[in-house]
Write a structure and sequence with these properties.
globular, 14 helices, single chain, 14 strands, Cytochrome p450
């Protein structure tokens, strides 16, 4: 998310006339914050909703309305850092790092391919896989939710969606983890090189999907078949990078969303009882669980001209970090935001981002959550923890490193 942890205070720029902001401490990789970021995020949202973070060298934005306003304003806030004169490695150029209108053709290609897929069929196959994994888990006194349920199911779903063979789970999970953690390279530079190497490995795998004969069906087959003839080298790079991002990002986001949702259910046994009593709650519950403790903690933009957010002047060239985890608990947008309400309506959360830069695989990720909730709902005993849940030390993706649980009484 930024350059490193540090206190929040007004930036030392004499030309700004912003009011002096309260000095608050927000260290995203502090163990207490990793375990539960919501108290400090609530304090930021209430006391300094737009604040300068010295360590990250960025503005932090915490209110829902402010976050969505920034995300909508592509003319003022750039996702593509090249618009502000920065260098971006070729491997990082994808639909997620381009801005409209430059991203339009690639995003349209992938969204059309997604709409052409048999998503109900994918969800049915995911339900069968989830049920099988839970049956295996129920045969043991305890099981590891992340490595034995969330990860294998997520990899199966994303590969099914793309129409590719599943790589070995352990190797792929290690590479995906290195890429995910490298997103926090501004906070810990030691994470950058392992992430770069893992990205190169996955790039080679994805390139093989475009150069070798692949499956005749699936999202990537549609992309290959509908990529316009004469597509230039740069555009082809965007397509392949987007496929890699969808593969790795879809897997890591699904895995994180599942782990967070199941952990929340163990902390709220009454919610499990609600699902048992009312299966029609499953779709709404899947959305509420992601709002309550979502996988994507935030994203960044750069102001390409002088502007303001909520009355706070933002100079041209300044980075802005939108903290989705804070926005998803904003009482101005969500009634009783710290309560898990499975019947919540109008739940337009930011758990997977927003707009043209939201996760392309959101529908598949939510299908993953729904099928697991449905499988758990019909199991004879509720899910509960058997040991200490351990969070992955990450500021960008909120996920678990370990989540021991049982389906035994």
């Amino acid at each position: 998310l930024g350059a490193g942890p540090g206190p929040l205070r007004r930036p030392p720029r004499e030309h700004l006339e912003a009011p002096v902001l309260p000095v608050l401490t927000y260290e995203p990789l502090d163990p207490a914050t990793v375990t539960n970021p919501y108290p400090v995020l609530a304090a930021l949202r209430e006391q300094a909703p737009v604040s300068w973070h010295d360590g990250m060298s960025s503005w932090l934005v915490t209110r829902y309305a402010d976050c969505t306003a920034v995300l909508r304003d592509h003319n003022t806030f750039a996702r593509d850092r090249r618009r502000t004169g920065q260098q971006v490695p070729a491997a990082s150029l994808s639909v997620q790092s381009l801005d409209p209108p430059g991203q339009a053709s690639v995003r349209s290609l992938f969204m059309n391919a997604l709409r052409a897929q048999d998503l109900p069929g994918l969800e049915t196959r995911a339900r069968d896989r989830a049920a099988a994994l839970l049956r295996e888990a129920a045969e043991r006194p305890s099981f590891e939710v992340m490595s034995e349920l969330a990860a294998p199911l997520s990899l199966a779903v994303v590969c099914d969606l793309l129409g590719v063979d599943e790589p070995p789970l352990a190797e792929f999970a290690a590479a995906s983890d290195a890429i995910m953690r490298s997103m926090d390279g501004g906070l810990d530079p030691a994470l950058i090189e392992p992430g770069r190497q893992a990205r190169e490995e996955l790039t080679a795998l994805v390139d093989s999907w475009f150069t070798e004969t692949g499956r005749p069906s699936g999202l990537l087959a549609h992309v290959r078949a509908h990529t316009p003839a004469g597509t230039g080298e740069t555009e082809e790079l965007f397509v392949r990078n987007t496929a890699r991002v969808m593969f790795q990002g879809g897997y890591s986001t699904m895995t994180a969303a599942l782990g967070n949702a199941l952990h929340t259910l163990t902390a709220h046994p009454e919610a499990q009882e609600q699902l048992r009593a009312n299966p029609r709650l499953v779709p709404k519950a899947a959305e509420e669980l992601v709002r309550f403790d979502g996988p994507v903690q935030g994203t960044s933009r750069t102001a390409i001209r002088k502007t303001s957010i909520a009355g706070i002047p933002i100079p041209a060239g300044d980075p802005v970090v939108l903290l989705f985890a804070a926005a998803n608990r904003d009482p101005a947008r969500f009634a009783e935001p710290d309560q898990l309400l499975l019947e919540r309506r109008d739940n337009r959360h930011l758990g997977y981002g927003w707009g043209t830069h939201s996760c392309i695989g959101t529908r598949a990720a939510q299908a993953c959550v729904r099928v697991v909730l449905d499988a758990l709902r019909t199991h004879r005993t509720p899910l509960r923890l058997t040991g200490r849940a351990q969070r992955q030390p990450s500021a960008t993706m909120r996920t678990f490193a370990a989540l021991p649980a049982t389906l035994h009484p």
